[in-house]
């Protein structure tokens, strides 16, 4: 009706629920409802293949003609960019996804990462509550994935960068997946300072 098409970006499959298939369910729902959409899927992060850039683009249309036009445009873009992409990463992904034991090991690794991130979220939350840091910190516990969105202004984010060398996006998004105990405390202390300065 408004000539809008949905584009979904699935970069961290498994990092929400612990099950990549479950995290893919929004795409399945769109397919079942017959909605036209594009979906990008990357295994670079969820399988630790950062330098391989392994992924794909899925699309669904309600018209064979539209589908053929899209395919031709995508093919032309790919041909203009690299024609034959490296296959090493795709072979690694294929070998994992075709072996039930490797899939199980992958899910185990993802769940360990989620446990670690959940622990980090709890430690951040506990710091803010114990130190009476202004703000609603329950959102840290309710968010999913490797990122936390801190409710900070652009000025506060700039203060964190210039005063504490803490870098995050202007929308307050920060990756907490690799923070250790000292870094968790440093991040929390810096945010506390940022929110309590006169």
UniProtKB/TrEMBL annotation:
TM annotation in the entry: none
Cofactor(s) the record lists: pyridoxal 5'-phosphate
Domain Aminotransferase class I/classII large: 2-190
Statement: the UniProt record of this protein carries the keyword Transferase: yes
Top-level EC class as recorded in UniProt: transferase
Oligomeric form and interacting partners: Homodimer.
Name of the protein in question: Aspartate aminotransferase, mitochondrial
Organism: Myxobolus squamalis
